[in-house]
Amino acid sequence: MLGLIALAAVPRPAGGEPLACRREIAKQSARYLQAVTKARGRCADRVLTGRLPPGTDCRSEPTTALRIASAAERANAGVAQACCGADGICGTAGDESLAGLGWDLGSCPNVESGACTAAIGGVADVPPCFTCVDATAVGRVASWSFGPQGPAPAPSPVGTCRRALGKVATRFLVAESRALAACWDGRLRGAHANPCPDPGDGKAMTVIAAARAKMTAAVCAACGGADRGCGGGDDLTPATIGVAADCPAIQGPGGACGSPTGDLPSIVACLGCITDFEADCTGRLAVPLVASYPAECHPPSPTCQAGVVCTADADCPTGYTCRDNGGDTRYCVGASCTSDAECSGAGVCRQYCTFDGCGARLCQCPGFGCSGPDEVCIDDGGLACRKLCTQDSDCTDPFGYVCVNPGFADGICIGSTPCE
Predict the structure, then answer these.
(1) In whole angstroms, what is the distance from residue 6 CA to residue 301 CA?
(2) Contacts of 38 (CB under 8 A, 6+ apart)
């Protein structure tokens, strides 16, 4: 955990400015969300243009990770300076009280069945809570915008469309976060007494609507074919673009998502719905004294459904992440284990096998395991265990006798055996 260190000690009365502290927490949360959004967006765009390798994980890519860590340090320092006494050091007698800030929650309230549940015992614990929630929220927008398999290079017009989707997702989330932050700051200052964004400060809804219109126009221009408009017969299809077939089934403070994404207008609608959810939840988390955190932002954790693939971490039980095993098959994988009894969420304990081979035993949702270390569960129209191969002689019953892509690391035998 990054320490709460003040960038500069500015003398002020200890514990005498709770409003300044509340406003700083909200400001730093919004700034962190926007910084993570931009960093993840830059990374994904570099993958799409071939400047980073396909399959790059933008959560851990070194340059992106450094930007995100720096943003977290700035958030910690800003809160410490505003909330932790004249010396700007948290954990001393000058700290603002959690009750006076509305942060006497006991623990971080989490988002989307994530892992943001650490205890909140003092002001020092507030930034780790909102940075965890904000980063999780950005992850859902990114995972949907770039499709279940993440960003992948492609020739135009698909490549141009994918880049546009990534850029508009980044811009819209940043714009909505800024509008909501300004609106909630007005509420904290007493400039109005409304929920945000509607009716809010009378400005947020207008700003968000304008940003949504720009997002729609940009997607239609990049993905709508020769007429550069949505609804024409030459629009790129969701399957061609590579986005998920369905919008995530989430019920947020502003409404429900979950419709199929059958065309460009529905892609834009889904992206807007997801962004509304994440911006609303993160915005409300940062101002607990004037806005309660909606239960919809952290629904009950799902449990494993055997053989059901995931599209994002939110589809998985708490503590699990949605991973690609290298064969375009994504399912929920959790922590290391030695027995099934250690796995929550109806998971099972077994070796985690990918195209790179089998590694340590991890908790996993059932229905994606195979019996041999040279086998991997593939979803290519139906889940099946495929045997890895480099030549036809590697293929034996019941896996068929022909090796597809022989000589390459992803060679597999024709034939199918149900995944366990």
Answers:
(1) 37
(2) 170, 174
pLDDT value of position 320: 85
Residue among 216, 185, 181, 139 nearest 23 (CA): 185
Q: Please name the residues in contact with 101: beta carbons below 8 A apart, sequence gap of 6 or more.
A: 18, 21, 22, 25, 83, 123, 126, 288, 289
Distant-in-sequence, close-in-space partners of 86: CB < 8 Å, separation ≥ 6? 9, 11, 12, 13, 14, 94
Our CA angle for 146, 111, 115, nearest 5°, is 95
Which of 76, 151, 177, 117 is closest to 301 using CA atoms?
117
Q: State the first-to-last Cα distance of the chain, in angstroms, to the nearest integer.
A: 39
Q: What pLDDT score was predicted for residue 148?
A: 56
> What's the rounded Cα separation, in Å, for the pair 219 and 20?
40
> Over the chain (420 residues), what is each successive 10-residue block's mean pLDDT?
34 60 98 97 92 87 96 97 93 92 95 86 96 92 72 85 92 97 97 96 97 94 90 85 80 76 88 92 96 87 87 79 83 91 92 87 93 84 84 85 74 82
Give the predicted TM-score (pTM) of the model: 0.77
pLDDT attached to residue 150: 66
Two structure tokens written together for 126:
């507030």
Instruction: Tell me what pLDDT residue 408 has.
Output: 58
Q: CB–CB of 108/132 below 8 Å?
A: yes
Exposed e or buried b for every residue in 225-237, given b needs 16+ CB within 10 A? Answer: beeeebeeeebbe
Which tokens is 184 given? 């909630």
Query: Alpha helix locations (H) across 91-241?
Result: 98-101, 126-145, 158-189, 204-223, 238-241
Instruction: Please name the residue that has the structure tokens 């205890």.
Output: 119
DSSP secondary structure string for all residues of 326-346: SSS-EEEEEEE-SSGGG--TT
Q: Please, are residues 303 and 332 in contact by the beta-carbon 8 Å criterion?
A: no
